[in-house]
Specification:
The chain is an alpha/beta fold and about 450 residues long. It is built from 18 helices and 13 strands. About 40% of the residues lie in helices and about 10% in strands. Strands 6-5-4-7-8-9-13 form a seven-stranded parallel beta sheet, sandwiched between helices. Strands 1-2-3 form a three-stranded parallel beta sheet. Strands 11-10-12 form a three-stranded antiparallel beta sheet. β7, α12 and β8 form a beta-alpha-beta unit.
């Protein structure tokens, strides 16, 4: 009797979404989790530089994400994109890019339907990554089989290859950071990278000047600060023990990864580099968050603070408790009911300098055996309830099995909001009253 063996059975093949570093990092991280769950190896397939790549760059008009991220290692669990046969498959993927891209455009025009972006740019493997059992329909019973709560809590080693790591260490010294110094990385999203209009991208961005007080507080503790980003960022004023990395000659794909991989604390927003911090499982603080059902700290002890939502109909800021009782669509941007849309009831206002500094102080003071307060645990339960509501009600997720499984994993995230932020904002009281008065005074002409 002949037994047919599938030589590819022990592998998970994944072509991550290449045009956003956050999505790419998330796909790789969950790919590694799925590989561990199924006792397989993750194989990364990425389109390769060449003639077709140059043509497609002009067609798509989108920047490629960090290419170094597809070369990360993980103790026998991953086969990076720079391996020979991965490059061969990458060339094949490149050849189908242009016909698939135009096929997607034709389908959109014919059927007047918005197709998934993963279809427009050839990718594959995502359903296996988020749904290792390959269930045909989403169900919580299927989700429970993967035991994501335990899976996400366990550390998974992710590293940069030895040669690149040694090169990055030398560059770090050239940047002026003393050897073995502790440093914190900060990323504050601005609109310049994607050249977004204010209407399109403002609600996901923040003002770096609201972080200056926090930066000075961190450096007063003898800890260095490295600001992340790109050359379109607003330059920082000169400060001791601060490296404005995007405006240095050392900016590179490799250093973007290395700086996050080796920082003592990552402070960021719900933007691309947050995904890299999650891939390396760094201790983190999320600030100016607008999507707590989606982008949120996954590890116990990691904290967040969210932007403020001003309700036009109620003429005031909503409390955190009220935000958790609003339709789930208020905290993400896939539909027309998203916060940046003209007909939205919400005006989203970024965190104050006081809130950011208070959250950082709280995060830096946490001990190893830190226990959440009753209010922090209550927030976690309310957030879980909102995610379940979202997965049932959202027309975007209806029939989209892969995305439903993807977002269901976030139900098990263990981060929570800063205790100080919750005390100030859980109910509409004195703090939010003053914030509302100040907002109305400063925006009188616009309300």
């Amino acid at each position: 009797m002949l037994v047919r063996l599938n030589p590819f059975k022990k592998y998970i093949f994944l072509a991550p979404f290449e045009y956003t570093i956050g999505n790419a990092a998330e796909h790789i991280y969950y790919g590694l989790l799925a590989a561990r769950l199924t006792n397989k190896k993750l194989v990364l397939i990425v389109r390769q530089p060449g003639f077709v790549r140059r043509i497609s760059k002009g067609i798509v008009q989108a920047r490629l994400t960090n290419r170094e991220i597809f070369k990360v290692r993980s103790e026998g669990m991953i086969i990076p994109s720079d391996y020979f046969f991965c490059r061969v498959f990458g060339k094949i993927l490149d050849l189908v890019f242009i016909p698939m891209y135009f096929f997607d455009k034709v389908m959109r025009r014919l059927f007047k339907k918005e197709f998934n972006s993963f279809f427009a740019i050839p990718t594959f493997g995502h359903n296996t990554v988020y749904n290792p059992g390959r269930e045909l329909r989403f169900s919580w019973a299927a989700v429970e089989k993967y035991n994501w709560e335990k899976t996400l809590a366990e550390n998974i080693p992710v590293s940069i290859n030895t040669k690149s790591n040694l090169a990055a260490e030398e560059i770090l010294v050239q940047m002026g950071l003393p050897k073995d110094s502790w440093y914190v990385t900060i990323h504050v999203r601005e609109r310049g990278f994607y050249n977004e209009s204010e209407a399109a991208g403002a609600y996901r961005c923040a003002n770096i000047h609201n972080y200056i007080e926090t930066i000075k507080y961190i450096t007063s503790l003898g800890v260095w600060v490295v600001r992340l980003g790109d050359s379109s960022m607003t330059p920082l004023p000169d400060m001791d023990c601060v490296i404005d990395y995007p405006h240095t000659p050392f900016k590179s794909d490799l250093m973007d990864l290395y700086l996050i991989k080796n920082c003592s604390l990552y402070i960021g927003m719900d933007s691309g580099t947050w995904g890299v911090a999650c891939l390396f499982q760094k201790s983190s603080l999320l600030t100016n968050s607008t999507a707590w059902c989606l982008t949120f700290p996954s590890k116990h002890g990691d904290l967040a603070i969210i932007k403020h939502f001003y309700s036009k109909s109620r003429g005031r800021f909503l409390s955190v408790r009220e935000c958790l009782e609003e339709p789930p669509t208020m905290n993400y941007h896939f539909l027309d009911s998203a916060p940046d849309h003209d007909k939205s009831d919400y005006i989203i206002v970024e965190n104050t300098s006081y809130e950011i500094k208070s959250a950082v102080e709280e995060k830096l003071d946490l001990g190893e055996n830190y226990q959440y307060s009753e209010l922090q645990n209550y927030f976690i339960e309310k957030r879980k309830k909102q995610i379940k509501q979202w997965l049932v009600e959202d027309p975007y997720l209806a029939g989209n099995t892969m995305q439903s499984f993807r977002f269901s994993t976030m139900y098990f995230y263990k981060g929570t909001l800063s205790q100080k932020f919750l005390e100030d904002n859980w109910e509409f009281g004195e703090y939010l009253e003053k914030l509302t008065e100040r907002f109305k005074k400063n925006n009188l002409l616009h309300l």
